[in-house]
């Protein structure tokens, strides 16, 4: 690695100078990079020396464009993601990433560059939610490029700031607001009938995601060993596929009551071409649409069980019907609230009717990719022992006798 000064004369007789960094990369290829200032050349030389020693240096001349990196990322995603997720990624790439920064080389992507890109999306009319979603996709494609040695660092990840600070700012899930109370769950189960009641029981006592419930097959349910295997899911297009992530593949114990309910339902369950297939199919034995479960079953059942809340207008005021009475809507918008309830049941103390499971076991039963994700969402629900009552009593005795 050498830094040398280069001086030459222009056509008008003026002298110009520049600083050239001459080096050999980790593949043995000779590289030259020119700078106007010696300080910039020295800085590049120092950084590049470390990168070459670690085998991660990517010369700018060989760097991929963001468009090329995005195409490579999408291609690799095809073998492991559902069509719905792929469609979303493709839209992010084609409509929001490539049109603005597709020609930029990966080596030019920095933290300030990412911030400017986000500002550009906002100026072009993208909603805050869309900007966040596109940012996540950009971070994923850069992470993929980083794993393959096309980029040294991932500026999207670096620009996140202090993740712990962000977690503290996130609103905590509340029982009765985001998580149904035990009374509400009992009321909902008492109101529901038929296969929908069995689906609700399964959601409450296993914490399955809606897609996992819709894709659950009888071959995945072992009623003899009283366990359920999560190995597939049904996407928004009602297509069967692998679970959300590798961690989502899991085995869950079944409660005695749920085992009995499933045994009885198995005798009545609609078949597909003369054989049992899905645990919760539609009337023809096919995958039930998620929207049908919400609109035709869950929301009406909540209203019947009086698990409701007033509908609000844009100003936050209750909507009124023609008689001046508040219009009531289902209190919880989807099945995910029952997954929250399952998590709280796993976490709560035994004296409060919970299982009081360790955080790691809760993570595994929920199918979270990391324990950090579990603690991020549900950490505040874990009991804090006896709130240090014993330590406080001992300290008081020591001071006061």
CATH topology of the largest domain, which one?
Answer: hpI Integrase, Chain A
Q: Order of strands in the sheet with the most strands?
A: 1-2-3
- Whole-angstrom Rg: 29 Å
Q: Please give the domain count.
A: 4
Identify the overall geometry: elongated
Number of helices: 16
CATH class of the largest domain: Mainly Alpha
SSE order: EEEHHHHHHHHHHEEEEEHHEEHHHH
Query: How far do the termini sit from each other?
Result: 73 Å
Structure, explained:
The structure is a single chain. Helices cover 47% and strands 11% of the residues. By secondary structure, it is mainly α. The chain has 4 domains: 2-57, no CATH class; 66-160, Orthogonal Bundle (DNA polymerase, domain 1); 172-179 and 335-401, no CATH class; 182-330, hpI Integrase, Chain A (Orthogonal Bundle). A hairpin with a 5-residue loop joins strand 2 and strand 3. Helix 2 packs across helix 5 (128-147), helix 3 (83-101) crosses helix 5 and helix 8 (182-191) runs antiparallel to helix 9. The radius of gyration is 29 Å and the shape is elongated. It starts with a strand and ends with a helix. 25% of the residues are buried.
């Amino acid at each position: 690695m050498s830094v040398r000064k280069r001086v030459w004369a222009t056509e008008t007789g003026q002298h110009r100078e520049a600083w050239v960094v001459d080096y050999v990369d980790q593949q043995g290829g000779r590289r030259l990079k020119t700078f106007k200032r010696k300080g910039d050349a020295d800085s590049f030389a120092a950084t590049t020396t470390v990168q070459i020693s670690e085998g991660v240096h990517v010369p700018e001349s060989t760097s991929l464009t963001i468009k090329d990196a995005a195409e490579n990322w999408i291609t690799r995603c095809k073998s492991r993601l559902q069509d719905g997720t792929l469609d979303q990624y493709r839209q992010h790439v084609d409509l929001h990433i490539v049109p603005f920064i597709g020609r930029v080389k990966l080596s030019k992507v920095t933290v300030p560059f990412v911030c400017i890109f986000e500002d550009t999306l906002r100026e072009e009319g993208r909603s805050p939610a869309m900007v966040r979603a596109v940012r996540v996709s950009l971070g994923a494609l850069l992470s993929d490029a980083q794993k393959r040695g096309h980029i040294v660092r991932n500026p999207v990840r670096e620009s996140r700031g202090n993740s712990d600070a962000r977690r503290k700012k996130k609103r905590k899930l509340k029982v009765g607001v985001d998580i149904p109370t035990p009374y509400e769950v009992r009321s909902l189960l008492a109101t529901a009938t038929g296969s929908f009641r069995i689906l609700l029981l399964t959601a409450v006592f296993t914490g399955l995601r809606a897609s996992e419930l819709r894709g659950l097959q009888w071959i995945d349910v072992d009623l003899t060993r009283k366990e359920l295997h999560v190995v597939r899911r049904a996407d928004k297009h009602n297509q069967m596929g692998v679970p959300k992530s590798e961690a989502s593949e899991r085995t869950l114990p079944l409660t005695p009551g749920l085992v009995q309910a499933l045994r009885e339902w198995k005798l009545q369950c609609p078949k597909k071409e003369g054989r049992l297939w899905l645990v919760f199919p539609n009337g023809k034995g096919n995958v039930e649409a998620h929207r049908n479960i919400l609109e035709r079953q869950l929301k009406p059942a909540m209203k019947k069980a009086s698990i409701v809340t007033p509908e609000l207008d844009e100003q936050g005021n209750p909507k009124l019907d023609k008689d001046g009475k508040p219009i009531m809507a289902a209190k919880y918008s989807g099945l995910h609230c029952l997954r929250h309830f399952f998590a709280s049941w796993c976490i709560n103390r035994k004296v409060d009717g919970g299982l009081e499971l360790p955080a790691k076991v809760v993570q595994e039963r929920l199918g979270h990719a990391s324990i950090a994700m579990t603690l991020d969402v549900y950490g505040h629900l874990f009991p804090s022992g006896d709130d240090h009552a014993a330590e406080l009593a001992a300290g008081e005795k020591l001071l006061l006798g």
